[in-house]
Amino acid sequence: IADMQRVHLEAKDTKRKLAQVLRASGADADLSCRILRFGMHLYYRKASLSVEDSVMNLLSRALACELTICQRSQYIVEHALFGRMRCRFPEVFASMCSAFDTHIFADADNVFRAGTISECLYITVRGSFSLNTPMKHWGHLQQRFVRCGMGKFKMRVGSLEGTVTTKFKCLSWLCEASLYVTSVHKSELRTLSFADAFTLTGADLVACIEKSPSCVTFMYHYASEFIKHLHSGLDEDCDLEIVPPDLSHSVCAKLFTDDEDDQADGHEDLDSPISNADLLEALVDEVMSDARTSAC
Question: How far apart are CA 217 and CA 226, in angstroms?
Fold first, then answer.
């Protein structure tokens, strides 16, 4: 009870200081209201999603890592790739959980805009989102859903001024292709409410896997097959923002058997064909090279 009262008092103090800044800035009532609402939301969400540095400093690195896994793995393992990675390479998966960045958005925020460079994988965790896709790219997106299935996506679709608006509020993954190839957004993603998302860049992915030759091999085959499936039957100008979860499941099912996952104990295979350091570097460069360009 004392902790709850302390948090409440700190929140009131933060709100008071924010209100003082808004008055000094001459912000109108509407803007002040929106800023205060989001400020308080952000304060409480950060308190629930993260642990204060003073507390984290009391934990060993291993315990802090386990805490991060406990907080984030429930969202990350829903993706077939990371679910397999947890079974086969637990140490890499642990570092991967820590590599994801947390973003908290206000309503009507732009998460990304069409025409900008796609730099990371997005995992939408909480809140409602709206993906606005030009009509000329929507046909390709429909083909992909017909071929792969809608999976866990529960969407409402409407057309407006040559743009297809896809609304969703479930756990979903966007722009995964940006982890493997240079890409450009063809759609715009906006929030419809306060929302949370995790992001992972290609550079962070490389940093997590580069010390594990077996995991680099794993990622190399997955990324190659993923991009191959993504462009199968589609032209090069297709929109790749939304990829149904079934696609990743299909790629993993084709490349890796359940028996391999059951036998995996997280130890490196000393007989890995890429244990040579030079070949390892070449594979990392090939998978994550910016030389290849794709539409995301």
Answer: 14
What tokens appear for 69 in the block? 């896994």
Are 150 and 95 in contact by the 8 Å Cβ rule? The answer is no
Q: What does pTM read for this prediction?
A: 0.73
Place of tokens 């190839």: 181
Q: Is the dihedral of CA 43, 47, 51, 52 positive or negative?
A: positive
Per-residue pLDDT of the chain (296 residues; tens, 9 = 90+): 565 666 667 777 777 888 888 788 888 888 888 888 888 888 777 766 666 666 667 788 888 888 888 888 888 998 889 999 999 999 999 999 989 999 999 989 999 998 899 999 999 999 999 888 877 655 555 544 434 333 344 444 554 556 778 788 878 888 888 999 888 888 899 999 999 999 999 999 999 999 899 999 999 999 998 888 777 655 444 555 666 667 788 888 888 765 455 444 444 443 344 444 454 555 555 555 543 444 34
Interacting residues of 189 by C-beta distance below 8 A, sequence separation 6+: 110, 111, 112, 122, 129, 130, 131, 132, 174, 241
Cα–Cα distance between 174 and 283 in angstroms, integer? 24
- The alpha carbon dihedral of 275, 276, 280, 282 has a sign of negative
